[in-house]
Amino acid sequence: MASRSLMVALLLAAVAATCARAQLHEKFYSESCPSVEDVVRREMVRALSLAPSLAGPLLRMHFHDCFVRGCDGSVLLDSANKTAEKDAQPNQTLRGFGFVERVKAAVEKACPDTVSCADVLALIARDAVWLSKGPFWEVPLGRRDGSVSISNETDALPPPTANFTVLTQLFAAVNLDAKDLVVLSAGHTIGTSHCFSFSDRLYNFTGMENPSDIDPTLEPQYMMRLKSKCASLNDNTTLVEMDPGSFKTFDTDYFKLVSKRRGLFHSDGALLTDPFTRAYVQRHASGAFKDEFFADFAASMIKMGNANPLTGSQGEIRKKCNVVNH
């Protein structure tokens, strides 16, 4: 009897999850807020015309939201005692929170109490890619906002220091596979990173903390170039382009870099340690299959955006993204 009850419970949970995903669709606001995408895009065009380097951080923010509690806007919440997701070490380098609030305010003005912060963030991420000359996709909408944000739960985020095994486990936890891993990693084609996210590869690979303690998998000339920018293991301020030369343009150059062992992070280099992801990197390193990669990236972004959304009567529609409604 107990096993039968368990089977029924699991079946119901699976049905509920399927229904939740099914409630997300591209025309969710077609009647309640038909202008939402125009409002978001207007703000995005204005922001990126002034600060094109903001595209990478905004894409990353959506990624960080979806990997913790699903795509529920929890990464945007403030905490008086600094225990929210945004206070955790992996999110200390996120930027663009003020801009998200500005977009949300514009959406609220057009359609009060209608569009969730989670959906606003999903649209911002799509436009960040598209306005950086990347692919366009229709974003399934209908997410609602969560009211819980816990810093310790950011352990679910794939760290830049992770090996392939850890990466696949963390991606699988949000229903993403090895193809999604290699495709979404290419989001590193736009944006910058602080030295401390990878400087152990330059000075402390085995824990010796000296200039000769380097990661042997990193291409030597690129290693020296990075050392000229990141002077020591303690450099906490310098920013480095993740895709040198085209870090404001969404393209396939990321794969070219990784194939030459010039991926910035451990996690980039890890893509060469698995036959499937290595083959994907090498295929797209040529740049000859841009349309194919763009289609793959759009599909993986949609799949990631389906990670455990709150829908229907779950959660709320926050008036401001950094605080729950009162």
UniProtKB/TrEMBL annotation:
Residues 1-22 form the signal peptide. Ca(2+) 1 binds at D65, V68, G70, D72, S74, E85. Disulfide bonds join C33-C111, C66-C71, C117-C321, C195-C230. Its main location: secreted. Substrate binds at P158. It catalyses: 2 a phenolic donor + H2O2 = 2 a phenolic radical donor + 2 H2O. Its cofactor is heme b; Ca(2+). It is found in: Secreted. CDD domains: secretory_peroxidase. SUPFAM superfamilies: Heme-dependent peroxidases. Keywords: Calcium, Disulfide bond, Glycoprotein, Heme, Hydrogen peroxide, Iron, Metal-binding, Oxidoreductase, Peroxidase, Pyrrolidone carboxylic acid, Secreted, Signal. The record marks R60 as: Transition state stabilizer. Binds 1 heme b (iron(II)-protoporphyrin IX) group per subunit. Heme b binds at H188. One of its GO terms (biological process) is response to oxidative stress. Its EC number is 1.11.1.7. The active site is at H64. Residues 23-325 form the Plant heme peroxidase family profile domain. It is an enzyme of class 1 (oxidoreductase). One of its GO terms (molecular function) is metal ion binding. Belongs to the peroxidase family. Ascorbate peroxidase subfamily. Removal of H(2)O(2), oxidation of toxic reductants, biosynthesis and degradation of lignin, suberization, auxin catabolism, response to environmental stresses such as wounding, pathogen attack and oxidative stress. These functions might be dependent on each isozyme/isoform in each plant tissue. This is Peroxidase. It comes from Triticum urartu. The gene is LOC125537000.
